[in-house]
Design goal:
single chain, 75% helix, MetI-like
């Protein structure tokens, strides 16, 4: 078997492994809850998707969870990417001391398992009044997504010729103007890729959603679906799957809409 054939077989197997559970989720989300027998269906029955979505909204306020998550994902990712872009500009363009130290200091935030932060975060949030607040959720999402966004932006800005910055300095351009008028437009693809990465991570987060929030007005949609999933006897798995299918659509749409920018940025920052 040639290398090309082996790669093709491997890609096909991975695709099948991904498609089978996805297919089961879609099929059973369309299954009317009253027709679910306890065993997953492999083919579509009578359509019940919209009834299941309506039941999810009524049983666990999934709509509110979607709005909360949209707020966290958009604002959290945007703020994190902006801060990461500023830090990247500082360590790659500005004459800061020990830029390598600052790179590793910030990037180390991606090394430790996130579970190690849960206990001190819960204690600190409870002591400061941030627990179960939207401000608290936004704060943790921004803090956790800065390091990886910084990694992407810093790698891209290293590819920008230093002659551009030197010429701007000779023309009397100050650092804020250089960042806003030169480097920020050049880094558009990298910024967009970082935003998509961080938006997706925040949107899919469950760990911090169930740890640092409690009320429906604050909880993200993944935590809301977890609450809904703990109530099988009332709503049934098809309702939970319908809610999960609805919650997954924004990230899928985002990726396909901005796929060209995403791929180009990965190529430039590799």
């Amino acid at each position: 078997m040639t290398g090309k054939t082996a790669r093709g077989v491997l890609v096909t197997l991975v695709s099948v492994l991904w498609l089978v559970p996805t297919w089961l989720v879609v099929v059973n989300a369309f299954t009317p809850a009253e027709q679910y027998t306890g065993s997953p269906r492999w083919w579509f029955a009578s359509p019940g998707l919209f009834a299941n979505i309506r039941a999810a909204f009524e049983s666990a306020d999934v709509g509110r969870g979607l709005l909360n998550t949209l707020l966290y994902a958009v604002i959290g990712a945007a703020v994190a990417v902006l801060i990461a872009a500023l830090a990247s500009f500082a360590v790659t363009v500005m004459p800061v001391r020990r830029p390598g130290f600052w790179f590793w200091f910030i990037f180390t935030g991606t090394v430790l398992p996130l579970q190690t932060f849960l206990s001190p975060l819960f204690t600190g949030y409870a002591a400061t009044g941030l627990y179960d607040t939207q401000y608290g959720m936004l704060l943790i999402y921004v803090a956790l997504t800065i390091p990886f966004a910084f990694f992407i932006n810093r790698n891209f800005m290293l590819t920008v010729p230093r002659e551009i910055s030197e010429a701007a300095q000779l023309d009397g351009v100050n650092w804020p103007s250089m960042f806003l008028r030169i480097h920020l437009p050049l880094a558009r693809n990298a910024l967009l890729a970082a935003f998509i990465f961080q938006f997706t991570w925040i949107w899919n987060d469950l760990l911090f959603g169930i740890t640092l929030s409690l009320s429906p007005n604050v909880r993200p949609v993944t935590a809301t679906l977890a609450d809904l999933g703990g109530n099988y006897s009332t709503v049934g798995p098809p309702v939970v799957l319908a809610g999960a299918l609805l919650a997954s659509l924004p990230t899928v749409i985002l990726f396909f809409v901005f796929q060209r920018f995403f791929v180009n940025s990965l190529r430039l920052t590799a």
